[in-house]
Amino acid sequence: MELKIREWNIKGAASLGWNNSYEITEKTVNKIVDQQKSVNEDIVPQPDIIVLTEFVVVKGLDYLFDTLKENEYIWFLKCETGKNGILIAVNKDMVDEEKLLKDKKEKLYNRKAIFSSDDGCNILRVDLPLKGCKYSRLTVIGCRMETGDKILKEQYDSERKCFDEVLIPMINTAEGLCIICGDFNNAKCYGNLNKRFNFNDYKIKNEPGYVAQFNYNLHIIKDKLEALNFSMMDVTKDGNPIPTHNGYAEDHIFVRGFNKFVRGSNKEGCNCIPADGLSDHDIIWATVKT
Known about the structure:
The protein is an alpha+beta fold. It has 6 helices and 15 strands. Strands 1, 4, 5, 6, 13, 14 and 15 form a 7-stranded mixed beta sheet that branches.
């Protein structure tokens, strides 16, 4: 089973819909769904799984939904007024829709197919029965850690608490194949990700808030998820994360039950697609295979 994954923070900025000019443009929608050129000029095929973070209900939503439907996706979303949300879209061909919808009360309304959390972070989890595959189910989790208006150390400590007390418990109840992708906000990386977290790597005196970074960083996240049998897709062979936001790596893809799949001339199986001014985050993508 091969899957093409695409995650993008589309910079909804917690719009209320009526209070600013933000909209999901046709260019944005087309970039979400279409084949795209990656930074290394490889053609990245249309995705099987799409996770949008900072998603909001605004003008342009009809075109997004129409385009998803035309391209044979089913989708799930979590959104609240004045908050950033998550949208997860999945290729319809890979899902056993009859099984998914056979008992709506049990599978959907009773939170067994889809549920979400907003405890200081935006998380949407979807559990899907797979069609024509030896693996019976797939869990997709989209997330974005909220930054808030706190000073740096309090902000990072809050994000660490959400990671430990909200995201990890949600992951622990997922069985089998699992994909986690999203914006982990401010989980910076110093040092080599091919090695475990080293406190000394984070003693960077000229970095504002460097002390705060000891408790919430990409090394800690990667180590914890690896302990749960996940692999990080967006780490290069040299142990560096792929930057997606102003030179920092904030968007990530972790998988369990899959391996990174290298196709054609691409040497990593994962990279980013330039946002071309449509967001301040680039799109992170990966191709994986069971």
